[in-house]
Amino acid sequence: MNPINWLLTSQVTIAGSPVLVREIVGNVFGLASALFGMRRLVAAWPVGIVGNVLLFTVFVGGIFDTPQDKDLWGQAGRQVFFALISLYGWYRWYQTRHQGAGQAVQPRWATTRERLELLGIGVVLYAIAYFVLKALGSWGPQWDAWILTGSILATYGMARGFVEFWLIWVAVDVVGVPLLVQAKFYPSATMYVVYGLFCVLGFASWWKIQNRERAATPEAVVVG
C-alpha cells in the first residue's frame, strides 16, 4: 500500500470506536500551524492549509468513506474557509515580513470599530450558517454553526494581528469539545482541548508582545 492510500484508508480504534488516521494527522498539522502562529512565522499558513485539506475529508462521510455515522458540514465548511482565509493571511504576513518589519505581524488590540464590525459579521454569518447547515442535515447545526462562524472570525483576526483572536478560539473550543465527543470524532475533540489550553498561552504571549512593541514604538499609528 502506497503512503497516500494508507493515509486515506487507515484507521485506529479509540475508546472502542474506529478513527481515521488522517483525522489524527490533520489535527497534528493544525497544532503545528497554531504553534507557528504564536511565534509569528509565515509557515503557519501553508502548514495549516495541509491540515485543512485532510480534515475536510474527515467530516463529510457522504463524500468520503468515514467510520462515523454523522456528517458535520460546519466542521467541513470551516476547513474550506480556513484555506481561503489562510491564503489571505499567508500573503499579508509574507508581505509584512518582506517590507522590513522584522516580524510577519505586529499584534495589536482591535479598535472599537473593528470589534463592532466583527460582531456584526459574526451575527450574519451565524444566521446564514445555521440555516444552511440545517438544510444540509448537519448534526447539531446550532453548535456547528457557531464553530464555523467563530473559526472564520478567529482566523481572520489572526491574519490582521488582533490579540483578541485567541479568545475567539477559546469560545470555539468550549463548544467544539462536547460536540465532537458526542459525534465520536475523538482525535479532533482531544485537539480542541489542547487548542484551548494553547490559546490561553497564545493570548498571554501576544498580549505581552503587543505591550512590549507598543512601548518600543510609541509613535506608531495603526492603520485599520
TrEMBL record:
Pfam families: NMN_transporter (PF04973). It is a multi-pass membrane protein. The keyword Transmembrane helix applies. Coiled coil: none annotated. The chain crosses the membrane at residues 12-36, 43-64, 76-94, 115-137, 189-207. It is found in: Cell membrane. Its main location: membrane. Keywords: Cell membrane, Membrane, Transmembrane, Transmembrane helix, Transport. NCBIfam families: NMN_trans_PnuC (TIGR01528). Belongs to the nicotinamide ribonucleoside (NR) uptake permease (TC 4.B.1) family. This is Nicotinamide riboside transporter PnuC. The gene is pnuC.
